[in-house]
Every structure is written in C-alpha cells, then in structure tokens.
C-alpha cells in the first residue's frame, strides 16, 4: 500500500497551518516525520487519516483518490494511533482491542475463533495479556497507549499512521513496540519526537518546520549536527554506531558542556 500527498494546504480558522505539503510513502516503507512543537506534524497526520479535511491538495492511497474511499474501506486499509489516548472508554481492555476487528465484520457479527486469536496475539505483542479484563479507564498512560496499539494491530491493516505512538512508554516498551511495528512489514508513516528512535527504525524521514516540509532523506542524510541545529536549535554530536550501524545523536546542552 502506498501513499501520495500532493500540494496539501490546511488552515484552522483562516490561519494557514500546512503549506503546500507533498510527501510519499512507498509500499512497505517506514517513514518518520520529525520537527519542533507546533510545526504541523499532528495536523498533517490528521489530514491523512481524515480527522481533518484539507483546504486544497490531493491524497492518494495506491493511486486512488482518498475522496473515493468509503469510511469502512479506509478502516480496512488504514490503522491510526492519534496523539490523545485519554479517551473516555468505559470498556475492558480486551473489548477495546476487539474493536479493531469491526471493519472486517458485518453489523452485529460476533467474534469468531480467528478474531479471538488475533485479539489475544495483539495483547501479547504489547505485553497486556495479563490485563485483558481490566477497565481501560483505570490504566496508566503507557498501559492505555499499549492497548490502543493492540487495537490497531488487531485491525491488521497494510498501512499505519501513527502520531508519536510511544510517547508514554518506558524505554523497554518503546523499543518493543517499534520492533513489533517494524516486524509487521506494513507501510508506516509516524510522527516521532525521539531522534534516535527515528534513526533506528525509519527508512526515510521528513522534517517539518513552520508548517512546511523543510527537508527529507534517509536518517544519515537528515541527522547531521548542522541540520539538527537549524531545526531544533541545539548542539549535538552525531556518529555512526558501531553495533547498530545507524546514526546516533548525543545531545550537548550548554550547562553540561561548558
Ligand atoms: N484545533 C486547533 N485550532 C487552532 N490551531 C490549532 C489547533 N490544533 C493545532 N493548532 C495549531 O496548529 C499548529 C500545528 O500544530 P500541530 O499539533 O500539528 O503541531 P505538532 O508538530 O504536532 O506539535 P507537537 O510536537 O507539539 O505535537 C500549532 O501552531 C497549533 O497551535
């Protein structure tokens, strides 16, 4: 499944937020979006997962214009994790994960054996099997995030749009979730704050600044000290890690290096 966004513009109350955005994600590619707070990452993803409607521009999924997809058709193809997981879900964890199966079913169709296995497997992947019967409302922020990830895994879509999917997770679960997502072989577009995580997992990265695409390229091309300084106004030391063979960024804050 591939995505193409062409010349997308979006405004909130006549205030232009996204300016002429064109991006593409190839089939099976893992693409990150990085950028400072307020640069427009979430707004772009919301336009892509149809929570917002662009002012102008086009979005294509496998060459088909988005406007020509029915809602259920999109839900079979596109799994989404938004930024806000404080949803008022008064349901058990396994019921929420089961919701991921609904695009694949008819109205009022119950869970088959195959659905139950998919749900169980999704819970296992995010380490939430033990909490399957717990009420979602009373979970910690990170546990809620893992449940919503399990829901999206149970949806079994070819394309995932993720808005900082691990921002509430401890480092073990961050790596575990990204390993799981990477292992799916799905097409992924994800906003990521942690530059080292982006470097580890992304094939390609778009950098956003002030509502525009500032640069795009491989992690090696994007993560230079110069680029990071231009976008985030910080000093860094960047080198290729001998074990991961990925670019690793060490932050050099003023109070520590002086
Ligand atoms: N509902 C809204 N109404 C008006 N302006 C909004 C709304 N939501 C976001 N904005 C503004 O749009 C701009 C882009 O916000 P967005 O959330 O897309 O940034 P972001 O890059 O995802 O930031 P962060 O890294 O903080 O999550 C910001 O200036 C923000 O204040």
From TrEMBL:
ABC transporter domain mapped to chain residues: 3-235
Pfam families: ABC_tran
Domain of life of the native organism: Bacteria
Keywords carried by this UniProt record: ATP-binding, Nucleotide-binding, Transport
Protein name as catalogued: Heme ABC transporter ATP-binding protein
Keyword Coiled coil recorded: no
GO MF, any single term: ATP binding
SUPFAM superfamilies membership: P-loop containing nucleoside triphosphate hydrolases
Classification of source organism: Bacteria, Bacillati, Bacillota, Bacilli, Bacillales
CDD domains in alphabetical order: ABC_Iron-Siderophores_B12_Hemin
Keyword Nucleotide-binding (UniProt): yes
């Amino acid at each position: 499944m591939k995505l193409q966004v062409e010349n997308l513009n979006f405004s909130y109350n006549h205030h232009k937020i996204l300016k002429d955005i064109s991006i593409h994600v190839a089939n099976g590619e893992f693409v990150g979006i990085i950028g400072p707070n307020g640069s427009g990452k979430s707004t772009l993803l919301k336009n892509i997962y149809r929570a917002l409607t662009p002012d102008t521009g086009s979005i294509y999924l496998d060459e088909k214009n988005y406007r020509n997809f029915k809602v259920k058709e999109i839900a079979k193809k596109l799994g989404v994790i938004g930024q806000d997981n404080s949803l008022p879900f008064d349901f058990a964890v396994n019921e929420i994960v089961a919701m991921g199966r609904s695009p694949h079913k008819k109205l009022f169709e119950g869970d088959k054996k195959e659905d139950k296995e998919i749900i169980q497997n999704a819970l296992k992947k995010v380490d939430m099997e033990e909490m399957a019967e717990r009420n979602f409302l009373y979970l910690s922020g990170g546990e809620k995030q893992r449940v919503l990830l399990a829901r999206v895994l149970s949806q079994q879509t070819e394309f995932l749009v993720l808005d900082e999917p691990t921002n509430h997770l401890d480092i073990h679960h961050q790596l575990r979730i990204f390993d799981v997502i990477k292992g799916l072989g799905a097409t992924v577009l994800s906003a990521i704050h942690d530059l080292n995580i982006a470097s580890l997992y992304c094939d390609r990265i778009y950098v956003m600044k002030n509502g525009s695409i500032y640069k795009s390229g491989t992690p090696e091309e994007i993560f230079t000290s110069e680029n990071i300084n231009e976008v985030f106004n910080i000093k860094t030391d960047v080198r290729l890690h001998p074990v991961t063979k990925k670019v690793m960024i060490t932050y050099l804050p003023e109070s520590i290096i002086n």
